[in-house]
Write a structure and sequence with these properties.
This protein is mainly alpha-helical and 191 residues long. The chain has one domain. It has a 3-stranded antiparallel beta sheet. α2 runs antiparallel to α6 and α6 packs antiparallel against α7. The radius of gyration is 18 Å and the shape is globular.
Amino acid sequence: MIKIFFFITFFGNYVFSQTNEIEKFRLLIHEQFQRYPEMQIQDMYKFVHQSAMGNAHAGVTLEMAQNYLEQEIQNLSPSDSIPLFENLSFDSTLIRVNLSPFIFYNRDIQELAKAFVQTTEEFEVSEKLLQERLNLFLEMSAKKEISFLYDDVKIFVEEKRKQNYPAVHHSFHYRKQYSPAYRVILKKFLE
């Protein structure tokens, strides 16, 4: 009797926890659509990919990260019109740090470069999590919760699956509309 109770309690909570995590990620997808209504399928794929695979820049040294960051910041205007942080995980452990507000608030560029490299070294990628979240993306398009056509999302995701889920750049339209400039980091390295 005790073994059955344990099994139901443990695995029932596990299933509930997984469902709850997926529902929380659904909210993050909706949040992205609210913030960036002109995003394309490729941009949502990038968001989902980053949420499970991190910043995908293995082998970057601190010097390289800092140089790239300094070059990119030279072309930006400080602004607080977008949030400093955007969650890639529902528990806020993995985030995008938007560079315009980062320089607006006069934050330390070297600290961000260091956090970027530390994230590259420590973040545990999860293809299983990526697949679960891509399935959610597909489900949301099938249920018309988001504005993408299901068939288009399915074709895009299937193509990326065949390519072993590569990282992608933002779409031209997204870049033109929003001028994205950020770094993906584990928040614990920037606090």
